[in-house]
Amino acid sequence: MNSRLSDRVADNTLVSSRPSGMKGKIKHRIWASILSLLLWGIIDITVSVGFAPTALALEYNKEILVEADFSGRDLTDSSFTKANLRQSNFSHTNLRGVSFFAANLESANLEGSDLTNATLDSARLIKANLTNAVLEGAFAANAKFDGAIIDGADFTDVLLRQDEQKKLCQVAQGTNPTTKRDTRDTLFCS
Known about the structure:
By secondary structure, the chain is an all-alpha fold. It is about 30% helix and about 0% strand.
């Protein structure tokens, strides 16, 4: 019995000889873990709801993004080289300096987007909606605009093939609400 009593006393001595800060450290780690999980949960909800900070210079090269919604975003200097963006929504999007080299933008909505200095070389903009878009300084050599809606689009200083420029002049009308430039004037239509 004496040995049991001494074991108990020894056990209590061991327990009481633990540094008092050890329980505090364990509690601190538990709270830190809980707060970390809570923070990640808030970030996850924020991203899902769409209030995430704007990501710049993203790469979507060779991606299949049919019917993707990029509307209202800031995609400055991003790259969509050879991406399939058929029927995607880029309305009211900042696309300054974006590369759409050889991208398929067939039936894409680019209404009110800013494509200043964008690369559209070899892009397919067939039946694309470019209403009120600003394409100032864009490089669009070899781009195809068959059936595109260009009402109010600004083509100032856009490098186009002559045959595409003539096709666009046949349907050009309106004035860009942002730049106040007439579409026909920016295309040098006669």
